[in-house]
Amino acid sequence: MNELNNAISYLFVPGDRPERFEKAVRSGADVVIVDLEDAVAQANKGAARSAVLEEWKALSAVANETNVTLCIRINALREDASRHDVALCNLLRPSLIMVPKVESRNDLSVVAREVPDARVLALIETATGVLEAREIATAPNVARLVLGSVDLMLNLGVTNDREPLDASRSMLVLASASAGIAAPVDGVCTSITDLDLVKADTERARSFGFAAKLCIHPKQIAAITAAFSVSDDEFAWASQVVAASKASAGAATTVNGAMIDLPVLMRALRIVAQRNEATLAATSR
Questions:
Q1: CATH for 4-228 (3.90.25.10, 3.40.50.2300, 3.20.190.10, 3.20.20.60)
Q2: pTM > 0.85
Q3: Taking 70 as the threshold, does the pLDDT of residue 1 lie above it?
Q4: DSSP per residue, 71-108
C-alpha cells in the first residue's frame, strides 16, 4: 500500500454502490475511502455495511495489486449508526478509518480501543474541532487531520470555502506540524467538470501547507496530483541550491543573487526528495 504520509488523492466511493468499488481502486487515487456516512442515505446504512462486508476481501486484493490504501469512513461517533460501523471495522480490520466531526482527542478513544491497529483520518468539520485541532492531532492513532470544508461552512454560517475558511486551514496546518504528523488533507472541490478550478483550489491549499486533497470523482484525481507535484522549475531551483550548498561546504552562499542558508537548503532537499518519491511511486504502479 501507499505510504500514507505521502498520499495525495483521497477518493470517496459510496458504501452502498459496490459496483463502483473496484473502479475506484483502479482510478489512480492513492487512498480510496469507502463511505458509510454522507454518501449513504439513512435507509441504506445497513445495506452499505453488508456490501462492504461482502466485498472487502476481494477489494483488498485489488488494492494490494494496485498499491492503494483502503479506508472506511464511519458515521459520527455521536450517532447510533457508528456503533455498527465500528463493529464492522473491528471485524474487517482496515488499516485506515476516517472519523467525521471529531471535536476532541477523547472522541477517538472508541476507535483506538475497538480497532487498535488502525490509523485515523480525523475529519474536522466544526468550529470546536478547529479550535481543538492541536489536541486532536496528538491522539496516538491519528495519521492526518482532514478539513471537512462543506460541513464547516454550514457550521460557521459562511457561503465561501476560500477566505472564510483560511484561518481554519492554517489552524490545521499548525496543529499537524506541532504534533509531528503529516500535513493535513484539504476538503473537496464540489465541481466535477471544471478541472481548472479543481487544480486552482488544490494549488491554493498547497500554498497554505496542505499536502493532499479529498476528491468526489475520479476525474479530479489528475488535476489534484498535478497541483501537488513538484514542477520542473521548482526541481531545477532545488537542484541548484543543493549543488551550490555542496560546493560551499555548507556555508551560506547565493543562487541567482538570493542567499542560501540552512532553512533554504532544507526546503530544497525536501523538494528533491518529493520529486524522487513521486518518480518511484509512479514506477511501482
A1: 3.20.20.60
A2: yes
A3: no
A4: EEEPPPTTSTHHHHHHHHHHHH--SEEEESS--SGGGG
